[in-house]
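Quick one from the shared queue. A colleague (R.T.) flagged PorT family protein as missing a structural entry in our internal table.

Convert sequence to structure tokens.
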Amino acid sequence: MKKIIVFFTFFTLSVQAQFGTSIFSKDPIVNLENFDKQRVYWGYFLGFSSFDFKTDYKVPGQDINVKGNSGFNVGLVGVLRLHEYVELRFEPGLYYASRTLTYPGFTNERDALREVKATYIDFPLMLKFSSLRTGNVRPYLLGGVGTTLNLSSNSKSKDDNSEQKFRVKPWTQNYTFGFGIDLYFEYFKFSPSIRGVFGFNDELIRDDDPNSPWTGNIESLKTRAVLINFTFH
């Protein structure tokens, strides 16, 4: 997660350094003056992500160590302008993610480790609140809710953790908050953003044994993630 935030900061500073004379200068040439007057427009995004789990326990003190690994995301963007400063955005995307869960109390790696891979199809609906445009720069905030399908959930598997199968529910709901900046170039608008994703509901499918050492002590397991998206319009 920290690496992703550092990368976002470094990337933004690099853009500023390379295009500072035309975008961040005191009196820039204003690019795409009428772009934000469009009622409907489209785009796409590429990006990076780090997914984690927020875990609540029935009995404290037996915490599972969850390590999030960097992933990749790609998707489309549809925009409906509601107001000069407000947009309704639909951003369906494909997210590749994985986490490594380490359980305490086991002496062998086979039982102690679970690698939870996920391929998400996300369907978020968001509102974007933009500030007043200054030259070729326009900061914004965004937030919304979404539904996500996990194609790698193992939900239909009859095996559980006793057979090294970690199972989660295929459909989950979440909410998203984030911020970013619109940069207006001569031929396109570029919008880097950083976002936090927080799951609403418990995703875990528990093992058949109610006293399972892998799922028996878990009260709830919810997705959380940090996303960095680079959007092009």
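The CA atoms of residues 61 and 90 lie 41 Å apart.
The first helix runs from residue 2 to 24.
Added to the table.
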